Amino acid sequence: MNDMVPVDLVVDHSVQVDVARSENAVQANMELEFSRNKERFGFLKWGSTAFNNMLVVPPGSGIVHQVNLEYLARVVFNNGGILYPDSVVGTDSHTTMIDGLGVAGWGVGGIEAEATMLGQPMSMVLPAVVGFKLSGKLRNGVTATDLVLTVTQMLRKHGVVGKFVEFYGGGMGELSLADRATIANMAPEYGATMGFFPVDAKTLDYLKLTGRSDETVAMIETYLRANNMFVDYKQVQAERVYSSYLELDLDEVEPCLSGPKRPHDRVTLKNMKSDWLSCLDNKVGFKVKPWIKTSLAPGSGVVKKYLDKSGLQKYLNQLGFNIVGYGCTTCIGNSGDLDESVAAAITDNDVVAAAVLSGNRNFEGRVHALTRANYLASPPLVVAYALAGTVNIDFEKEPVGISKDGKEVYFRDIWPTTDEIAEVVKASVLPDMFKGTYEAITKGNPMWNELPVSASTLYPWDPKSTYIHEPPYFKDMTMTPPGARPVKDAYCLLNFGDSITTDHISPAGSIHPDSPAAKYLKERNVERKDFNSYGSRRGNDEIMARGTFANIRIVNKFLKGEVGPQTIHVPSGEKLAVFDAAMKYKNEGHDTIILAGAEYGSGSSRDWAAKGPMLQGVKAVIAKSFERIHRSNLAGMGIVPLCFKAGEDADTLGLTGHERYTIQLPTDVNEIKPGQDVTVTTDNGKSFTCTLRFDTEVELAYYTHGGILPYVIRKIA
Asked: What residue stretches are annotated with the Aconitase A/isopropylmalate dehydratase small subunit swivel domain (predicted)?
């Protein structure tokens, strides 16, 4: 089976920060990356030759979203003389970054993406569109990160889950393409399906800057103008009609961070010290100081070129911000180990350690297991906090540090003006840099090019591999769909509160040495130093099933205040690792369900957060609300998503999770409708009504086929 639409695969989530503060960091980290991931990369390289219509961008090239902005995105497709608007779905929730370029795009789970690759249409309920009007201009010294954190908080408060957001207004002309892309990137954090910026003159300028030809840019402009899809802010703008409205005067935005555990918890810079001190009471939930781990991982090779040309990189190197690689590192959990003495001090003294990063994710346990507080900030603020060596500082009143001549240096002394930044950008960011980088991007690097690849069109599975394992989704599959399956007398595997993220469900970071996944690897003679991460072992279902609900910061109500990846096996009362309890239920012939609060499955569009529970035997999730992508992924794996009615949840209904649950779905598939009411009963006499969150007929079809993958196979066979 070949993919039926153009597919671009950027390998960007496997580099780890093993070596930092070194001129050799890029090469050293890449060598370790290839050593750890040789099997995975071999599999991906095989795919680049075995399938048609697929481009693989090798490791070390950059982060998918920046590569998409600078190189991959077409804006308007020209397919044999037929023109149509570009659109994209990507297997990362921050695919929305491309909306800043005027390309409609958003993240989906790998499950849904696989179906799309095989020609299946996207299915969704027509979304409401929120109009977000921007006016004014950002004040001197205020960054795009400050703006996006402000926008994120406003949109979270407004409520935009499952909606589109379109930005418009006079302030648009004051935002660079990079600023727009930063705001669009954070759509998952404010909950929207996408945050869209229509194409205008700024977009065309960026396309030229990044090496697109004059002919291509002229074609894009002509097509979009002819179809009334180009916005010209030099002309009077007609008033637009939206489902709801928000407005922000850019002049009101002030420097800020976000954290310590959620991207939409904004903290103004002037209040950062007091916010940090309050965190210490609630532990759950010029040179850089030597205990600070510093790293710089740009989104593309172009960044190094303009940092070098501007002269900035040599000073960043002096501060320990040497480039460590090109890919997702810190915010995916690949931040690498801390110095042993620092790690020991944190653990032995129960220190609340903090991370400050210019990424987009700061969920608990994600950046590093030992950093309980994690703040999102602009890149220059990250450097400022590294210089200070602590977040316990008020930059308005306290010095960042002491100069060589003994003078106190304050934040205001080192912060550049907006004009200064613009002047350096204009002189240092040049079109030839983009052209030179992307002309060579698909040629790979020596390590990638030396990987041996099978010429077979079928992949030769190695049963001994702990990285690539033949997936179990088609075992015992018949060409007849199984139809609706009853959920009767199921036990509750886990009982959650609000804001359980896909990182809680399926962590991407390091594998804990006492976890079921570690036990599996040890049994196969894999040493601890070679465990790698869950993210790097996604090609092995045996490990990923064991890694489901393995986040060390997960909070399960069954454990009554304890934190960690364990649960209670209800029939026996045993406290077990979640995977072990799930297998015990399976072996006993029992179905399981999950109880959850609001925003279940928020965060990354991680398909393993649905695949893993399915492999553990979970048949349904009953929650107050779901994040859009995760709910879709559950449907795609044949797991029933149910929502409590408004004003109700497990606590108000008196559910402890020790009950047994029967979900009264009709056995006749023709009697099941998207969004219908479903009665749930328990063995102790409770009964309550939920909303069935199969939102479309297509999702319902996925369920009756046992998931999206069996459905697609049956359709094309």
From this structure: 518-646
Please give the residue range of the domain that contains residue 628: 487-507+556-716
Q: What is the pLDDT of residue 158?
A: 95
Nearest to 377, CA basis, from 134, 408, 177, 388: 388
Rounded to the nearest 10°, the torsion over CA 362, 368, 372, 373 is: -40
Whether 190 is covered by a domain: the verdict is yes
Are 659 and 492 within 8 A, CB to CB?
yes
Exposure pattern of 117-144 as b/e (b: 16+ CB <10 Å)?
Answer: bbebeebbeebebbbbbbeebbeebbbb
Q: Is residue 22 part of a domain?
A: no
- pLDDT tens digit string along 376-410? 999 999 999 999 999 999 999 999 988 888 899 99
The CATH number covering residue 645 comes to 3.20.19.10
d(CA 399, CA 384): 11
Orientation of helix 25-36 relative to helix 38-50, angle to 10°: 80
Angle value at C-alpha 294, between 41 and 311, nearest 5 degrees:
95
CA of 154: how far to CAs of 159, 220, 628, in Å?
Answer: 9, 33, 19
Cβ-contact 40, 451 below 8 angstroms: no
From 330, 305, 324, 297, select the one nearest 438 (Cα to Cα): 305
48 domain-assigned: no
- Share the mean pLDDT of the chain: 91
Report which DSSP code applies to 138: P
